Amino acid sequence: MSPILAGVMNLSEDTLPMNFKINIIVVLIMSLAIVCPAQEGDVPDYTIGPQDLLSINVFEVPELNITVRVSENGDITLPLLGTIRAGGMTRNQLEKHMAALLEKSYLKNAQVTVFIKEYQSKKVSVIGAIKNPGNYDLIGKQSLLQLISLAGGLTESAAGRIIVIRQYKNGKSASLKIDLDELMMNGKAELNIPLNAGDIVNIPVERTSDVYVFGQVNNPGYIKVKSSSQMTILKVIAQAGGFTDRARSGNVLITRRVNDKEIKLKVNVNKILRGKQEDFVIQANDIVFVPESVL
Fold first, then answer.
1. Do 39 and 122 form a contact (C-beta atoms < 8 A)?
2. What is the DSSP string of 203-250?
3. Contact predicate 22/154, CB 8 Å
4. pLDDT at residue 114 above 90?
5. CATH numbers and ranges of domains, the chain
6. Given a cut of 90, is residue 285 above it in pLDDT?
7. Tell me, what's the pLDDT at 1?
């Protein structure tokens, strides 16, 4: 386990604001990508597939120094050799296959070089709360975290889960749900799954609602609350910059709508801070007013 991850795991989850947790996760994703970078360039064990673009060179046979795209059924058409199968072969296998065909009818000791210029047949898609959504080439063996790193990392609106939609060869599909905290904050490396061609990685955007805080706080205004996280009065006051010196913290007023009716709730934050009562749970669209002390 990395020292960064170990340090994060020692922090209580309740002490980490959501935005700070997202930033930690992004940093960890980037650090893991540096330790285990995605493979780039020509990959020997990559199997050629439809729409891949191949650059072929045959020593002393200029007619065969061409660039050709693999057809949908996996074939390529070449001068002298006609239509041959390329799909399902690695680059080295195709080189040997072409050399054997040339040596059979045209050359002795044929020297064939194949370079994959575009990896079109094996792509994965990433959508949702990611900085650079889109389609990415699946070159070699890539993991979920490597793809997220390639796509620029998560945005602050990312929910606490990742959904990988996977299509199998038998036509069936499945949704793999991965808990982001379990993967990153708790270090469950088995959740960093290897990706398959055609996978769609969806990072859902977390729904948010507003809580308005005004009165004797240092930064009054709207606070965004994520639907998946429990927001309490202490967290709201903290995000609003804390109480001012003139705040009457023992008499905080909450205005809430219930069944189209407006109700008023008084909360003694001093008792919460002293551990004499539980932290008060804030709901979406609550209005929090901190009155001024009458001293």
1. no
2. EPBPPEEEEEEEESBSS-EEEEEETTS-EEHHHHHHHTT-B-TTB-GG
3. yes
4. yes
5. 3-41+122-203 (3.10.560.10), 53-118 (3.30.1950.10), 208-290 (3.10.560.10)
6. no
7. 44
